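It is worth pausing here to work through a concrete case rather than discussing structure prediction in the abstract. The textbook approach is simple: state the sequence, then state the predicted structure, then interpret. We follow exactly that order.
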Amino acid sequence: MKRALSLQLLGGLKDWMRLFGPWRLLACLAALALVLLIALTVVPLELPPLDNALLSWLGQVIPVGMGRWLVRVYKVSGIQFTAVLVTAALIYLGWKRWWNELRWLVVGTGGILLIVDRWLKPLFDRHRPEDKLVQAFGRSFPSGHAAGAVVFYFLMCAILVARYPQLRRPLYLGSALWVAVIWLSTLYCRVHWPTDIVAGACVGFIWLSLCSVSLRFFGARQTDCSLGRSS
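Step two, the predicted structure:
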């Protein structure tokens, strides 16, 4: 019995790894290496020169009117608004009875929050930039804003595109533009260093990859089980 269960688990792991694929694995390893490189070479610096220069440059080149709009974007895209969006998405998935999708959206959004805020930020304990344009508390590296946006918006894209493939282009394009605006607003408000955003995007990409592949894997198994019962 135990041997059969072990073989079944091993077979499932192989199927999951096959679905994950070598290119996605290489991309995740590259993202992890970039996070480690930043953590070891940039995070220990009290005033990172490249980060500081980029923040100063953005403050100079972005017009005042656009800057006010970016401040509003940052405030709107904060935890409270994102929590409302996630709750609405969970209600929608529950109403549709898409239980596998609901499960993995909970894992994705809840997991990235725990990974960044409860583990990585306390581990690196990096301070935020000076002269912030909005109030922001806590540690800086990596950016939870960047990581959370990547996971939530693109995981929802994966969920919706699987059901409505004709919406693939507008969903992914709209999400990419919105996430980019969120990152830009975070930098303009001087809430994070640019390398915080890069690391947050990398962490978000790794977690998104794990969750999106698991979503497809367990969805396929669920379908196979349903077909088996019906036959």
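Step three, interpretation. The chain has nine helices and no strands. The mean pLDDT is 88.
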